[in-house]
Amino acid sequence: MPSALPLADPAPSDGLLPATAAVGAHERNFGVYLHVPFCRVRCGYCDFNTYTATELRGAKQSDYADEAVAELRFGKSVLASSTVPDRPVSTVFFGGGTPTLLPADDLVRMLRGVTDNFDLAPGAEVTTEANPDSVDAAYLRTLAEAGFTRVSFGMQSAVPSVLATLERTHDPARVPLVVQWARDAGLGVSLDLIYGTPGETLADWRVSLETAIACAPDHVSAYSLIVEPGTKLARQIRSGVVGTPDEDLQADMYELADDLLTEAGYGWYEVSNWATDDRHRSRHNLSYWTGEDWWGVGPGSHSHVGGVRWWNVKHPAAYAQRIAAGESPAAGRETLDDETRELERILLLTRTRDGIPIRTLAPEARTAVAGLIAEELVDARQALLGRLELTRRGRLLADAVVRRLVGD
């Protein structure tokens, strides 16, 4: 969750949504995202809306679970008053920050706030993010017994020097332990990796991939490092303390990830995500890419219901004040027009392996796509024949086009 909030219209203090938000709601799934904005230390590359203990100023971690539950009650009231029909929650995702910095009982209480106000659909996916050094076996058992189904560990790398550059604090040797503890508790497991860290070699990245695969998680996410303006890492690169990430090397790393994960039995289903099978895809993240509805709880959280998107105030103290006053914590919102919604649908679905059925596009869009495919086919064919000099990134794109068109 990026720390910068977009500019848009003021959000009403009562949170009420326009009548258009209810249109077609029965056809869309409903999820809940709970942002826990606390971290033990701030990683130099991170631009998310997170706070260490010394940065809270006027807010307490110990109060946060009750504040989140209060927003859930508020959300239930807003949706009912806006005539958005009741729907059971199909996915719940605790993100951060580090949700597991809170006591396990706090996360359980927040999940109970979801079920008390919205109910859970049968077979609902309930995920929390966790750092490998923020949980033990007892903690994970408590979550599983309360109804959590999945944990996503921020592994990032198995190479100590890479973790040091990223300012991650966990011992990489702990990752297999926490994965086993999660398995023993009956939880599904995802491992999150980052590639392209300054100084990281292709050999380093291979070590991280092979270590992750050896843990046999159900799901792997692999994200290229993005240097966000204003972060410590951006300042280090600007001053020459560390090098600039190499985009061609990042393309090699992506290709290696796809090769090794595919060989290990993981299927690619979204630009940065692989799963052992369709059942272990991240259903919550898929809901973002497919335009479903969700309510985002917590400071800086974003929500979307029926083409209305809003985002909460950033600082935990400002958030707590709004919640205590019984007001919407939203800082701003926007109502998307049909053209914007269609554009976003296309952009998001093209990130996924399933893609977009051509029949769902407007006639003019179908014509444009046909022309684009024809051009990309020519470029891909020329690249494969060695008639076109492309960067590594360009060759990767050409390969992706061919794979799509010939069905791998």
From TrEMBL:
InterPro entries: Aldolase_TIM, Coproporphyrinogen-III_oxidase, Elp3/MiaA/NifB-like_rSAM, HemW-like, rSAM, rSAM_sf
Entries under SMART domains matching the protein: Elp3
Keyword Mitochondrion attached: no
Domain Radical SAM core: 24-270
SUPFAM superfamilies from the UniProt entry: Radical SAM enzymes
Compartmental location: Cytoplasm
Segments crossing the lipid bilayer: none
Family per similarity comment: Belongs to the anaerobic coproporphyrinogen-III oxidase family. HemW subfamily.
Job description of the protein: Probably acts as a heme chaperone, transferring heme to an unknown acceptor. Binds one molecule of heme per monomer, possibly covalently. Binds 1 [4Fe-4S] cluster. The cluster is coordinated with 3 cysteines and an exchangeable S-adenosyl-L-methionine.
PANTHER family assigned: COPROPORPHYRINIGEN III OXIDASE, RADICAL S-ADENOSYL METHIONINE DOMAIN-CONTAINING PROTEIN 1, MITOCHONDRIAL
Protein name: Heme chaperone HemW
Native organism: Plantibacter elymi (nom. nud.)
